[in-house]
Sequence to fold (124 residues):
Amino acid sequence: QVQLVESGGGLVQAGGSLRLSCAASGLTFSRYAMAWFRQAPGKEREFVATISWYGGSTFYADPVKGRFTISRDNGEMTVYLQMNTLKPEDTAVYYCAARASVRPGQVTNEYPHWGQGTQVTVSS
Fold:
């Protein structure tokens, strides 16, 4: 059974940084594309970043380009999201997602496996 567990969320001031982690189990991690999505109160879940199975391809949503970096450690079966220069509009629950594909994807319904989410709150 696939399990994804996020950690690293918290409260941070605008301009600060956080590093999210997502530990995976129950899957051949190196054969899965991974992604981060987020959902703010009253809004739909939106794409943040995605990374291919070997880490060579990454894509980012426009609002986070240049500030966020997605990476993975296949040996540790973990995907990371380094978030710098955080803004109040980054406040959301951040979710890790996995799909059995070598190619990264940016669409929510392409991912059958999801974590429980971790709250990120950025104060102004």
Notes: The chain has no helices and eleven strands.
